[in-house]
Amino acid sequence: MSRIGTQHGHWVYELNGGIRLELGKRTLIMGILNATPDSFSDGGRYTQVEAAVAHAAAMVEDGADLLDIGGESTRPGFEPVPLEEELRRIIPVIQAVRKELPHIPLSIDTYKAAAARQAMEAGAHIINDIWGLKGDPEMAAVAAEFGCPVIINHNRHARDYNDFVPDVLADLLGSVEIARAAGVAESQLWLDPGIGFAKTYENNLELLARLSELSALGYPVLLGTSRKRFIRDTLSLPTWELAFGTAATVALGIAQGSHIVRVHDVREMKQTALMTDAILQQIKK
């Protein structure tokens, strides 16, 4: 159970283990830790617990404020992983990282309620659901039970939009209603525009250009653009050379109100966030 204090544009979370997490004071960096053999970016590099812990520690050293641990790739065309296999991948990693880095909040990247429950019991603090509480009817109840922050990611089974950005916002608010109905405190909800999920190249660019419309809803916003295909397609570069392109999207997202950025290249994005925050502080004076 986490305790929350909120002010306009500022949220303070007291998480399990005595961890304090503040949103809105500065941009937070969420480091991506993939315990998967088939991630689009770093598949197979951190499937062993020792390697995963070492990478987690390196990301924290580089400036990560929290870590997102996933055991199933969500790249386009991914093959679903059985629950038992997902748990085999994530639970030892969560336990080991929590032991090694007890001061760092951990997010579990899953759309399965049973996986989220066991991850929370193993030491995770936050649920990150790529289906925005719509993929598993029990997910919202798990979030309510643990009283934890939950990241609502925008997603659809088809790109059947009538009016793209308003439709995205409406979908996200639909997920908010699911959470409310299950008893999740509204201050526990973080919104993710779902860049790269059920969106065309043009959709992704438009959503980034209009991200302030999502921020205007008044919820914390998490942006996940790191190394995604629309950046690769724009720059015509391989996945591992997309740090500069990612940085452009990160700066733009922060300028439009994003509170957290989910990234692979922690050191580079930390510098990007610090510089962008410094400029925005001058604008606010």
UniProtKB/TrEMBL annotation:
GO terms for molecular function: dihydropteroate synthase activity. CDD domains: DHPS. It comes from the Bacteria. Its EC number is 2.5.1.15. It is an enzyme of class 2 (transferase). Keywords: Folate biosynthesis, Magnesium, Metal-binding, Transferase. Residues 27-275 form the Pterin-binding domain. Pathway: Cofactor biosynthesis; tetrahydrofolate biosynthesis; 7,8-dihydrofolate from 2-amino-4-hydroxy-6-hydroxymethyl-7,8-dihydropteridine diphosphate and 4-aminobenzoate: step 1/2. Its cofactor is Mg(2+). The keyword Transferase applies. It holds the Pfam family Pterin_bind. The keyword Magnesium applies. It catalyses: (7,8-dihydropterin-6-yl)methyl diphosphate + 4-aminobenzoate = 7,8-dihydropteroate + diphosphate. Belongs to the DHPS family. Catalyzes the condensation of para-aminobenzoate (pABA) with 6-hydroxymethyl-7,8-dihydropterin diphosphate (DHPt-PP) to form 7,8-dihydropteroate (H2Pte), the immediate precursor of folate derivatives. This is Dihydropteroate synthase. It comes from Paenibacillus harenae.
